[in-house]
Write a structure and sequence with these properties.
This protein is 29% helix and 17% strand. The protein contains 5 helices and 6 strands, in the order βαβαββαααββ. The strands form 2 sheets. The protein has a 4-stranded parallel sheet, covered by helices on one side. Strands 3-4 form a two-stranded antiparallel sheet. Helix 1 packs across helix 4 (97-108) and helix 3 (89-95) packs across helix 4 (97-108).
């Protein structure tokens, strides 16, 4: 008996649509990261990209628990003097609503070339419409807790 190891040629990615309306950011990011990595499939192989393409709609309707809308801040640094920017979560939602979810998913992925490639399979849209009807995505129901 031998262990099955997926290869790039044998992986068959699917397209999945997730509606992020009233979803908690962290809980949604866990589900999305697992779908991108392929951990939901029996053919999951850690060193191979067996994940699916994920389309998230209504990213502007996500929510945080507690007082995170007031307390949470996103920090970037350009590595130049005075190049640090700190953006509160409310401002980030107003400016770039998809970036909140993208950063949450990115931080749940492992660091390395494979994960950098897998994060490109995440497509986030602020409204209910998306550009990927031609791929015939399947709707994914989020688990309710």
């Amino acid at each position: 008996m031998s262990t099955f190891m997926a290869k790039k040629e044998t992986a068959t990615p699917q397209w999945v649509v997730i509606d992020a309306t009233d979803a908690v950011v962290g809980r949604l990011a866990v589900v999305v990261a697992n779908l991108l990595r392929g951990k939901h499939k029996p053919t999951y192989t850690p060193h191979c990209d067996t994940g699916d393409f994920v389309v998230v709609v209504n990213a502007d309707k996500v929510r945080f628990t507690g007082k995170k809308w007031d307390a949470k801040e996103y920090q970037t640094y350009s590595h130049y003097a005075g190049g640090q920017k700190i953006i509160p979560a409310k401002v980030m939602l107003a400016r770039r609503p998809g970036e909140i979810l993208r950063l949450a998913v990115k931080r749940m992925m492992p660091r390395g070339p494979l994960a950098y490639k897998q994060i490109t399979k995440l497509k986030i849209f602020a409204g209910p419409q998306h550009d990927h009807q031609a791929q015939q995505p399947v709707e994914f129901k989020l688990p309710t807790a």
